[in-house]
Amino acid sequence: SPFLRLILTEGRCVYVRDAVKDLLKQAQEELDMAAYLLPGKYFKGACFHSQQAVEKAVKAMLLNKGWELEKTHSLERLIAIGEQHNVQIDLSDEDVVYIDNIYRSRYPAEAGLLPLGEPSETDAQRAVGLATRILKDAGK
């Protein structure tokens, strides 16, 4: 079927019963993993899961305002979309760049972008703190 082929080739989700609720649940799980990894000194993992929590929480806020889900990991892009949908994300420009660099640093060609080399405990604490704040805002 052309309909099913489109779903398979483009990875489009046609229907999700409660996408906002599901994304918020996933965001909370990501934040829980980040918080769990932090005391074990798994700072890169804590940063990555924090980034994922922020991304999913912001996507939930956008979906709640009628945004049509798009495949992106860029927080900068999501915030620009948020402005179009009257969604305020409480992050400074510096925080946005910081979170976006966490995701990009997952790839070997761009390793070391956070901020210069492996993340420190301070970096991980910052990421977890940002994710905590954004997830709290998303749950309002």
Helical percentage: 55-70%
Report on the biggest sheet: none
Please provide the count of β strands.
0
Order of helices and strands: HHHHHH
Q: Work out the helix count.
A: 6
Rg, Å, rounded: 16 Å
Structural class per helix/strand content? mainly alpha
Unreliable stretches (pLDDT < 50, length at least 5) are none
CA(first)-CA(last) distance: 41 Å
User: What share of the residues does DSSP label as strand, in percent?
Assistant: under 5%
Query: What general form does the structure show?
Result: globular
Give the rounded overall mean pLDDT. Answer: 83
Oligomer: single chain
Architecture overview:
There is one protein chain. The mean pLDDT is 83. With 140 residues, this protein is an all-alpha fold. It is built from six helices and no strands. It is globular, with a radius of gyration of 16 Å. 64% of the residues lie in helices and 0% in strands. The protein has helices spanning 2-10, 19-37, 43-64, 75-84, 93-104, 121-138. Helix 2 runs antiparallel to helix 3 (43-64), helix 2 runs antiparallel to helix 6 (121-138) and helix 3 (43-64) packs across helix 5 (93-104).
